[in-house]
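Q: Got a minute? One more chain.
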Amino acid sequence: MVNFNGTIFQDNEQKISIHNRGLNYGDAVFETLKVVASKVYFLEDHYFRLMASMRILRMEIPMNFTMEFFEQEILKTVEAYNVTSEAYRVKVFVNRKTGGKYTPETNDIDFLISVETLGISFYTTNKTTYEVELFKDYYIPANLLSTLKTTSKVVNVLGSIYAKENNYQNCLLLNDKKQVIEALNGNIFLIKENLIITPPISDGCLRGIIRKQIIDICKLSKDYTLTEESISPFDLQKADELFITNVIVGIQSISRFRKKEYTSRVAKDLLQKLNVKARLSL
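A: Always. Here it is, folded:
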């Protein structure tokens, strides 16, 4: 089932126009959310990130596009999906309405919501080998647009193909200053003893929802010190731990980068705290 501008359609009923601006120009943003027990994890953070992204791209936000409306349309789509599951992955896709070439005829928007099932509701530790490598064919510009979840993700696609062809579980992306900024599907954190480092938004990394939660958790913790600073490829070799965050898996520990192997002590502790925070957000 898909929700197009508030109307529910079967997957094969709703057709996207060949002139869709997201398809033709990448003129679209999206949010990937986790829904558990008819509640959206970190709803407020997702909503405000989407609104900020739309404003940066100069899209016209409808007056009725409130957080309550946002939540209502998500849950309406999940209910219509009619497949019983503990949790759901929901994608909210917003594009500027069809019309124009590079210069749009309007800044009004369409939205599309799709749903798929997830295995379990809470975040768990993945104990399998998780090896990563740097993807150096292309670089991410260190600018504001790189921090948004737009549909312009060709570098992520090519990096994913590279990882698959070389039997890596993920790749780490570099910005145009050759700094490590994120993984293909989430933010990166580096741990050295009790110091936790994650790249600043100014380096061009995604303004991630779980990134924000981990930062907030660490600010309230006496066990860790968190700093936002640039990470070089050489820093990866000196770390005790590396992990990736996104809203679907929560925290994914990296077990190996080249000849370096990592522990996951801090990641496991933070995962427990993240689960508590996620429940409190419902």
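A: The chain has two domains: 2-118, 131-280.
Q: Perfect, thanks.
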